[in-house]
Design a protein that fits this description.
The protein is mainly α. It is built from 6 helices and 4 strands; from the N terminus they run ααβββαβααα. The strands form 2 sheets. The protein has a two-stranded antiparallel sheet with strand order 1-4.
């Protein structure tokens, strides 16, 4: 079964994350607004996570260090990441004239031939250092100029904490505060 949008409870199923933004764009409300998109991102079957026009990386790009299945998986993983980055860019462009803040994070990382001949999130023992790729994930916060002007204290707080470690379980508090909830 092909995973689609990580949730079988959705009333609509989309093949790619970009379809979610197209069919459920951010709307303008007079009251405070919190929109949460749960993307499938790079989950496991990397070759199915992006439309073919986003295939900018090829297996041969990883030679001579990698070849065969490893090079193919790495290319697909990087293409899926490229696609997600392009979607975030489109969303930021849509939000740029609004009083808006965007928070992006992953629920976990994947090992893609980083420390051994392995990919994904294997269970069991991990080589020293592999926890970094599995558990240290990006946390990206972007704010429009309008938001920054209206909330300088919030921006100061975000900057002051930018280099501190954070756990995904802590992020909900930050998101609710950013949303004014």
């Amino acid at each position: 079964v092909k995973e689609q949008n990580l949730n079988r409870l959705n009333s609509h199923i989309y093949s790619y994350d970009g379809d979610i933004f197209e069919n459920h764009p951010p709307k303008e409300y007079s009251l405070k607004n919190l929109i949460i998109y749960h993307l499938i991102g790079n989950h496991m079957i990397y070759s199915e996570r992006y439309p073919h026009e986003y295939a900018v990386f090829k297996a041969e790009d990883y030679a001579p260090l990698y070849s065969g299945e490893a090079a193919e998986k790495m290319a697909h993983y990087d293409n899926a990441t490229h696609y997600t980055d392009s979607l975030l860019n489109k969303l930021i462009n849509k939000l740029s004239t609004k009083n808006a803040v965007l928070v992006y994070t992953s629920d976990h990382g994947d090992e893609v031939y980083d420390y051994r001949d392995s990919w994904g999130r294997s269970q069991g023992e991990h080589p020293v250092g592999s926890d970094k790729v599995l558990h240290e994930v990006p946390l990206y916060v972007w704010a429009s100029e309008k938001f920054r002007a209206k909330h300088p204290g919030v921006m100061d707080s975000l900057r002051a904490n930018a280099d501190k470690p954070i756990y995904n379980t802590d992020i909900s508090h930050t998101i609710l505060e950013l949303a004014g909830i």
